[in-house]
Amino acid sequence: MTNKLIFSAIGAMIATGNSADAQEVAQTQQKPNIIYIMCDDMGYGDLGCYGQQFISTPRIDNMAAEGMRFTQAYAGSPVSAPSRACFMTGQHSGHTLVRGNKEYWNNGNLNQYYGNNLDYSRVGQHPYDPDHIIIPEIFQRNGYATGMFGKWAGGYEGSESTPDKRGIDEYYGYICQFQAHLYYPNFLNEYSRSRGDDGVKRVTLEQNIQHAMYGADYLNRAQYSADLIHEKAMEWIDSQSADKPFLGIFTYTLPHAELLQPNDSILQAYRDKFCECEERKFGGDQGSRYNPTDIAHAQFAGMITRLDQQVGEILDLLKKKGLDENTVVIFTSDNGPHEEGGADPAFFNRDGLLKGTKRSTNEGGIRIYGSNLGDELLAWWLGNNGSVNDTTLLSAASGIGLMMRRFIPHLLLAAGGAAIIMISTKLALAAVMAGAVYAAIAAVRAAMAWKHSSIEFKESYMKINRGNIACIREYIR
Prior knowledge:
disordered N terminus; alpha/beta; 12 helices
């Protein structure tokens, strides 16, 4: 397969424009629906279709068999908030306003009680630039219904960048990624345009707050956020029809720490899978909101299988409603594998033998599968029949665009214009421009950056040889 180095962003691909070709396509083809599933901290080798031997992922494996599996995808950042910002804005982390996990909670606002549990009265991360249009705004302006379910991390409560202000019609999940460390939290956030909400609000989980946030009593909490978020996402899909195109952004928190879940058949299947010498105990970290567990390996494996089951339910519902043939489903992750809350990437070989993990700008921290823009990336569109794509994707935002480059007419239709800039092995620049809102990276010498804390990874030189890309890496402090 010809390897191409592609600089693109979803925003650039589907930006508004006045292309005559796009107008013609719009008259003849139906706008595609898009479901974008971004899981949290999943490594390159955590799925069966990428070589995982301990964890069962039959539905995602089958998704890869029916769709397209990517092997050379890169996240926008090795940590959560900036990686998601790259996806939302179409910028790399050297340009986007959000470049780290800057928090907007502190002990000064640790003053709100839920039962006997003390929590923060304001939570969230640094806001996206309000003057920079983001993906859901583009889709919404072009006639799409938009729903987001899961982690936001693009602005704190009450800021200028919350889902209700950024092109999202329906939202349910965690505004704050720190709050997402608890899978049985005190509250979640929600917003519904159809219900007439005037902004994002908190939803107290009444059963949970009857019990402690840490320790043995925490296990008596029953409202599991990963299941609640998935249920809301399924309800939203069920409310969609072929009459109006839709964009669903499902930023599910599995399998991020803490490593806990309901003690149901999924977990039970792994409890005895690992012998005592193989199992891992984690004593907990109350400050980080990671509760202890004596079966960290079983918990982690079960969380990925639980996620796999949820992905399967999404695909089944699309098929049941007759929406599957006109829906693109993308599965990915925000960055490479984590070692928090008792997670053990070395045991599961989940970084695919790549150097580095989450927070590292080495391959293991930013390379994702065709299902993880941190190390995996999968695209499901009926008719791809298990193809493997070794195209190098730079930036989390490039995933949708590149995975669907064969569907350019649909994307032109979706927003009235598109911009894709790609550099082939012969360094021939091919571009389709249609009044793009975003400017994609326009030259070979334009630097891509993965920035975390004080270290900036900069590709200052690229050489394409025999279809492969060799890079000289320069570290700048």
